């Protein structure tokens, strides 16, 4: 049975056959009428007795609805006068009811600080294409090949019925079993001398650089950077107020001689150098042993620090990698080592690690507690088990073979379709190749224009020039072609499409 009543400006209807209680039906209809403005502020409502009579329902039904609306601030009672729609509604309803006030045309633009303006102006190659296709995104792993079934079981093991300690505040440096697993892995695979206490879990490379820059740098300190280099460094360094010193990368890695010359011209020494010696990003150069020792000697002489970004050392297809800088720095304590799991496993994992010299352990712990307390514990136990139980090593072995085959497929397809357009050379490591513009193409367009053409064809190929920090060396024109996420059977079609876009 349906009961109807007419209140000023609206009608009400109660349905006895509905599952929802009658007082909730009445409450909802009156609330919606107030929100929509059909019952304006100050409107007097009929008495509960009168409305109950019109609706042919119990007076308790009406009283229950009125009491709920009074408690939530939609109605107000006036002694001796009755019940009215509130003139001032709850704060959250003001946005729902009305439009935001227009901003006066003369309102001044919001003022950012100098660092804020520099941060807001930063761009990242390929940023606008995030979430799109997979060809040829640099650094994107093959997500279809990741063992998510194993990963799901590990997550369930720890979080289906979590021990109370996991739900409490975690260790400032991160989940201890994960730090132990990372220390064991680095000792076995990269010959690092590291104790679990030196490992700090981060949300990735940028977070690690940001934390290190906050502790090791003062505003105005000079930082040596590879040019071209990883653009994710720009934000943390701008936030720290550092002065970037772009240095050229030759066949042996970052030029220490150019850095010394730049310091001499400036009259002060660099405070920090950030390098990727195992596989320079984006050029792929492996820093020679002589250059590594030269860089370490500079750090000791200048009292400077080195951040070693070992971002994809897992994917090496030929020969053995040279020893990490951290392992060569015998007793020096000048190297901060960082790595990330995002390229090895999957990007949204957002987990990495920082290995600091023993003398920096306590300062880093104290600063970390002051800045962000501790990293989220949600996936750390699963990752620790993933490494300790051998799944990580098995996954890396599978991906190494898969990515090597895909690099070969890219080179073969480039030989068929890109002759006279792009020049590609094989690389013994990594997840992308640098494709330099052939002379004829470079005479007609820049690499940024080539990247735009690729984007218009649904391909993501960032320009090499976008990774420049300054004018540290000759301007090379090329595209970064990531191959790790492109199946071999689709590689030829993707390369052919790129060729059509550039021709």
From TrEMBL:
Q: Where is the HTH gntR-type domain?
A: 20-88
Q: Which family does it belong to?
A: In the C-terminal section; belongs to the class-I pyridoxal-phosphate-dependent aminotransferase family.
Q: Which GO terms describe its molecular function?
A: DNA binding; DNA-binding transcription factor activity; pyridoxal phosphate binding
Looking up PROSITE patterns in the UniProt record yields: HTH_GNTR
Q: Which domain of life is it from?
A: Bacteria
Keywords in alphabetical order: DNA-binding, Pyridoxal phosphate, Transcription, Transcription regulation
PANTHER family to which the protein is assigned, alphabetical = HTH-TYPE TRANSCRIPTIONAL REGULATORY PROTEIN GABR
Put simply, this protein is called Transcriptional regulator, GntR family
Which source organism? Tistlia consotensis USBA 355
Q: Does the keyword Transcription apply?
A: yes
Alphabetical list of InterPro entries matching this protein: Aminotransferase_I/II_large, HTH_trans_reg/aminotransferase, PyrdxlP-dep_Trfase, PyrdxlP-dep_Trfase_major, Tscrpt_reg_HTH_GntR, WH-like_DNA-bd_sf, WH_DNA-bd_sf
């Amino acid at each position: 049975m349906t009961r109807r009543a007419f209140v000023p400006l609206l009608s009400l209807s109660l349905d006895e056959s509905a599952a929802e209680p009658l007082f909730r039906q009445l409450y909802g209809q009156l609330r919606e009428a107030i929100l929509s403005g059909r019952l304006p502020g100050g409107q007097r409502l009929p008495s509960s007795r009168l409305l109950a009579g019109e609706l042919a329902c119990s007076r308790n039904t009406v009283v229950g609805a009125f009491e709920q609306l009074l408690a939530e601030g939609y109605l107000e009672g006036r002694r001796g006068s009755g019940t009215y729609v509130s003139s001032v509604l709850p704060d959250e309803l003001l946005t729902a009811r009305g439009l935001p006030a227009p901003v006066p045309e003369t309102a001044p633009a919001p003022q950012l600080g100098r660092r804020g303006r520099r941060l807001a102006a930063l761009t990242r190659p390929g940023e606008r294409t995030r979430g799109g296709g997979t060809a040829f995104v640099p650094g994107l792993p093959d997500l279809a090949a990741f063992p998510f079934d194993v990963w799901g079981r590990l997550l369930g093991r720890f979080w289906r019925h979590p021990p109370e300690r996991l739900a409490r505040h975690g260790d400032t440096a991160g989940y201890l079993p994960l730090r132990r697993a990372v220390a064991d892995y680095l000792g076995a695979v990269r010959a690092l001398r590291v104790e679990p206490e030196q490992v700090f879990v981060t949300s990735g490379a940028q977070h690690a650089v940001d934390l290190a820059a906050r502790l090791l740098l003062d505003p105005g300190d000079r930082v040596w950077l590879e040019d071209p280099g990883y653009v994710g460094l720009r934000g943390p360094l701008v936030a720290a107020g550092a002065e970037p010193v772009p240095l050229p990368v030759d066949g042996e890695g970052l030029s220490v001689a150019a850095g010394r010359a730049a310091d001499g011209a400036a009259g002060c020494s660099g405070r920090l150098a950030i390098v990727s010696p195992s596989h320079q990003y984006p050029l792929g150069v492996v820093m020679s042993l002589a250059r590594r020792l030269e860089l370490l000697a500079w750090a000791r002489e200048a009292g400077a620090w080195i951040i070693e970004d070992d971002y994809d050392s897992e994917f090496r297809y030929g020969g053995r990698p040279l020893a990490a800088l951290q392992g060569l720095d015998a007793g020096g304590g000048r190297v901060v080592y960082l790595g990330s799991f995002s390229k090895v496993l999957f990007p949204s994992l957002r987990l990495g690690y920082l290995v600091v010299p023993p003398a920096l352990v306590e300062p880093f712990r104290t600063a970390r507690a002051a800045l962000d307390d501790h990293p989220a514990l949600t996936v750390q136990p699963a990752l620790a088990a993933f490494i300790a139980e051998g799944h990580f090593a098995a996954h890396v072995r599978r991906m190494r073979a898969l990515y090597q085959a895909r690099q070969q497929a890219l080179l073969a397809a480039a030989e068929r379709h890109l002759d006279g357009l792009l020049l590609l050379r094989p690389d013994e490591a990594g997840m992308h190749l640098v494709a330099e513009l052939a002379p004829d193409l470079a005479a007609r367009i820049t690499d940024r224009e080539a990247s735009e053409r690729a984007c218009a064809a649904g391909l993501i190929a960032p320009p090499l020039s976008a990774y420049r920090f300054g004018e540290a060396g000759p301007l090379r024109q090329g595209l970064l072609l990531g191959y790790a996420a492109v199946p071999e059977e689709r590689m030829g079609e993707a390369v052919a499409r790129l060729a059509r876009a550039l021709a």
